[in-house]
Amino acid sequence: MNLNKAMVIGNLTRDPEIKTTPSGQSVASFSIATNFVWTDQSGQKQERAEFHNIVAWRRLAEICGQYLKKGSKIYIEGRLQTRDWVGQDGIKRYRTEIIAENMIMLDSKGGAPSNFQAPSQEANEPVINVDEDPKDEIQVENIPF
Length: 145
Description:
The chain is mostly beta strands.
């Protein structure tokens, strides 16, 4: 049995960047910062930020682009994926990303979390259905906040 699952809660470090592939699929990329706080042996509080690269596809990408802004606190659930390429300098480079399958906005209006989910996942919370026709726009009355 194999498991490739990543779950992070953090704040966006920049607005999502939305692009469209030649085949017409939307893709969003952004990063999330998470903080790790601990007390060292001398009793001093230490803190370290970790930055996570996130990629969302199709309808989830469109939702991220429409609703997320720098500083937004969100929960992302997905899988880890590492890409490699050869740079212009001839050196092979690597980038590990979380491919988002589920996103919950944690600082939405009214304080109630909003859950947006990729079609391949199921959730116990109310979900805006993202496997609709991509031509449909998000209607204000469908947003749970």
